[in-house]
Design goal:
alpha+beta; homotetramer; about 400 residues; 2 domains; paralog of FGE (formylglycine-generating enzyme)
């Protein structure tokens, strides 16, 4: 476990390395956080829940995200104004916490494991948040150098059939899982089919071209309102003239790659336009349990589906919006104390995403993993996979 | 069917009769509508979907609520500014539409039935909306004269046990149902128990007294934010000193009666504080199918539960917030054309309510009836019933 | 004095007579008030400051506009929700107050006079507010029947010369004036000239046609921001195709008539575009003192200037935005008590208007009269007159 | 002139030196700008208006503040998100621009002088903006080390008498002045008296203690609304327990020093409470012309008035809010082209401040200098001096 811990800590710092101090300090919107805050908050998490001797008593408050039971915290929308402590001091804080944890002979394994997965979640958020920041910069800064060009088209879409019936869903087993992945339980599914790959940029471009953002009939009422209020005319980072802002800067849109940076509203509208629907999270999980957890995790960009048969891109290219609102599994009980706030108190006004993205850390994903964001959120690496009734 | 139609039209007018012309014109918030608008819009519904010859071509636009496929409409938040047409003209419009429908020899039965149930929905909204308006008036106007006093306490809470298993849910049968009540389908339930009556004012008062609105641990994160932003310290119409604003004006709070005018957030927090939870809509329906659709519909106020055994107050005292987000039943398809917008496009950001309230019209409710409102909505006559895992 | 009082009370009621009860109840924006509120508030003013026996104790609070020293009041933006007291009761209140004042053998003359002029101010506001309400109604209701057509063009613009020097400004004399019109004091003016008539619709149409609303160089920075935020493309009530919403409903724009319903920002931008400027209020008053107080008061619409020589339209066609911010005259002291709040506490963030409009009551205007509104306000009957340095 | 230029450039960099890169990147509110932006914008000003060869074509847009005639610019509220160009590159830009100007053999003197004074204005803004940023940081960072303690009380307030009459106001002479300081013109003043020193923290504390922020009678209506909306209970940087946030971090409040960081509303309310009023800008200038331009410029904090006679603290301790709205002097004409936007387009919705503050650069102030801010602005180093009619 200490190995995972040390590796996760180092990986976070590796991800921050390409950035300037100023890049790490800025907060582009209340939903996003500065890199520096991610660096500090993930340290605060171990310091607080492993009850380390405090590095600086002030930090207990400064880097609390939302744990009411731990105490007060600065307002979320002001994280970009915390220019002190400076980056150097935050890095010292990180080093101090890392060392203190490694010095523990027998840390509580459950908390240590949770802290590692928590850190991995923030690794992905660091990338989503920095892209959002850079996307607002007229200079179109690149987080990473240009990638090798990809070739070829996406394979034609095919369907994976599922007979439905009584299916067991949710985490159950020896490995780590977040509390919201359990308890394991039975659900009754109707027969359905699931697309064998993600929806591509090229497919989504057809939706845009045929008035997808101009005609209300495909949209939820709230989604139509959001689209008009936000002047949505294409996925978040699409630019005019077939360009797209990415972690590699502004590049040509790759028609074969999965579409990302959709809100749930856009994913849902596309599916309806395509004569299909989003899968429920139970349907998705029923299929995902049958395939290995493999994919382009850490690739920094979504890649086209490989040719082949059966479900592909289930993990690691784009988070997949599902038809399911985020609510507790039957029998769910959050833990006692502050850690019970980790997931449980967000189970309303959000939609579930499954799978994982090119920015998800290796080793972090599972078939039972439940990610969740509000339906208007667009800055995550989220796309969709179609489903149908049989 | 024409009988139901004529009765529904007359009932709407009976409900408006106690109001002054000015009362009928005001809109107290964007979510509520003026009585005059309800009178007109329910007429517009028949005129439009039964394709009557238009009374006044301008009205086609004026009284469209949200049907994008029908065309434009005035902004919702400005309904209170439509002082023209005046009430007299709207009443003429009503009479004209009523007569035109009655003159049809063979109107499409499905549309006629939908129009009648639509009108009944607006009957309840007229009451929720007028109470909201009056609640903001320093004079505390009463819609109806004071009711006879009630006596006695609520019976002690008992539980109804359910074994779980595979259960059929959703409307199926000859009678009317909205499209969102089907298709009928199987769900797998774990064993649970349901409270045999609603939570009372007295019980909710204990939650308030013990800091229910002051401590975040019982609340969803969004709920806690909403409560602080809105300065919530008790249910919407509770006043200091044990008073409550009602359709009868300001009266003493009746501890034995069901608590109403809760948001979902408050209902959910109360249930958690009480060591229980909200039922899912499937759990609720599984029990509700076993009891007749009887209750205090049209009573203008919620009444204490009768002594007895088994589930009581399942219909007609207070809408019951459930644990379920409002999403389509498996296999749901909205109808083609504008009427497909009736329910389908609202299936996100809302929570399901079941049962019905003292303001629901007689004959309008069913075990499969799915009502829905955003979790922060407080002006509906909504309370809760507790549930537990077995 | 009692004669003026009785006439003013009757005139208010005459102005309300063409309206339906619903028209009188609605509030189209926080800056405007319902007719019913004007009817009641002007009565409250006499009741409160003449210390009449209260008609209904609740009204003391209900109809207070902004007098902090008198006590609390309902929030301004909710005046349209006060459906009770109903119109009938407000009319009874008016009658009761009128009678009580007339029954006073020797009411304090200064307060009575102030109350009469206060009532006259609200007479104009009733018309500005009802036009704003009707302008938002898709039916374009008319407050008054169509007027006789006007003929001919506006006379060519000529200039009135003034030599500048030391000039006495401000009210001084036996007649009534508001406290903000004094004290009389000397100001030193540079030589200037003033246009002999108001800017016309035709002239303003040229400004619009030549990109007046599309190019920032004519605008104050705040004005340009307001114009873009509000999508301003022409004066408030101009409609496409040369139509204009007026108290007579939607009519053809009369190019010869003065332009009205401008914000200060638009008036200021027009003047700069025209190579001129707005006059200061001191310049305006220096000229206005030389002409009789005559004009089209009560005409319900602005009329073209008559041919002739010398300053015309100084009173009674359109309020004239001046170059002056509203600040106290040197030596100004508001009165003691609540009536000191009448004008003094509004002397910031507003620009001065002079003259009077077609909606100003006969007998209400003076050369020293200082009207004032925020620079973004557009719903008053305000236009402009050009000035230049000599 | 080149000497002044080089000194001003160096001084700007000296002021930035104590800050970390992150401090220089953050924007604490839309009205404030990041230090890095100030460093770049002052360079852009010379580059643009002296028509230098561009350092980087993208910068022409990036660092335009508000000159519409120059072209587009990033939205003001997003200046803190411009993490690229990084600080290093902005410093290179500065050096490049400085060198290019020094290399010009005969730059246009008027533009060069304007650029130097423009740079000095931003030197003060860098300090006001960084203090605002640091004031929101729970760590209370200090821009500068603790100052030596001051001793003693403020001298008792005395009055400077002025007989009034015809007075010449406005800049006229060989030295530099902004366009808004002229033309020189005559004004007629009534006799008045001016306090011989600024209002102190101790005096303002009495206003707070006696309910100054709790009772509306001293306040303009807009000010009272602003105070309630913003929860104002003391000057901006006062903390509980007699502490105050300053450029030296949080320190004890010095009762003898001038009060600063007031809005105009607070200054105006204090003056009324004290039985006096604010001076007009003409009154202030009439007195200021009689004293040398001396004071504590660059002191980083306001110092108590020295004992003595006659007007003191007229320059260099705290900007003094005046009774005057910011409008053009008679005969004012802004220059042609983009530089005409420097002052002229802001002449509405602002109040004039006179004098200068402890953060004003040496050599920057004049008796005719007209500073201006909206009446709700609190983050400038602004206090007040009392005046009275004689």
């Amino acid at each position: 476990m200490h190995l995972d811990f040390a590796a996760a800590r180092a990986e976070t710092e590796r991800l921050a390395a390409p950035l300037a101090a100023e890049d790490m300090g800025a907060q582009s919107m209340p939903d996003a956080s500065p890199t520096k805050w991610h660096l500090a908050h993930t340290s605060w998490f171990f310091e607080t829940f492993l009850r380390l001797a405090p590095f600086d008593p002030a930090f207990a408050t400064l880097f609390n995200s939302y744990y009411e039971a731990v105490g007060p915290r600065p307002p979320r929308h002001r994280r970009g104004l915390m220019t002190r402590p400076t980056l150097d001091r935050v890095l010292s804080y990180r080093a101090w916490v890392t060392e203190a944890v490694l010095a523990q002979s027998d840390p509580p394994a459950a908390i240590l494991a949770l802290g590692v997965e928590h850190e991995r979640q923030h690794q992905e958020l660091m990338l989503t948040d920095i892209l959002h920041l850079f996307s607002l910069n007229p200079l179109n800064p690149a987080y990473a150098p240009p990638p090798p060009a990809t070739h070829g088209d996406a394979p034609p879409l095919d369907w994976v059939e599922h007979p439905g019936g009584l299916v067991e869903i949710g985490h159950d087993g020896p490995g780590f899982a977040f509390d919201n992945e359990g308890p394991r339980h039975a659900v009754w599914l109707r027969p359905f089919r699931l697309a064998d790959r993600l929806v591509t940029n090229g497919e989504f471009r057809a939706f845009v071209a045929r008035g997808g953002y101009l005609r209300p009939e495909w949209w939820m009422s709230d989604g139509w309102d959001a689209a008009r209020a936000g002047d949505w005319a294409a996925p978040l980072y699409w630019r005019p003239d077939g360009r797209q802002m990415t972690l590699h800067g502004e590049v040509d849109l790759d028609d074969a790659a999965p579409v990302v940076n959709l809100s749930w509203y856009e994913a849902d509208a596309y599916a309806r336009w395509a004569g299909a629907r989003l899968p429920t999270e139970e349907e998705w999980e029923a299929v995902a349990r049958t395939v290995p957890v493999e994919g382009n995790m850490g690739a920094l960009r979504p890649l086209p589906a490989r040719p082949g048969q059966g479900p592909r891109q289930m993990f690691g290219d784009a988070w997949e919006w599902t038809a399911s609102a985020y609510r507790p599994w039957p029998g769910f009980r959050p833990g006692a104390g502050a850690l019970g706030e980790y997931n449980g108190k967000f189970m309303v006004n959000q939609m579930v995403l499954r799978g994982g993205s090119f920015a998800s850390p290796v080793g972090h994903l599972r078939a039972s993993y439940r990610n969740f964001f509000p339906p208007a959120a667009r800055w995550q690496f989220a796309g969709l996979r179609l489903a149908e009734d049989r």
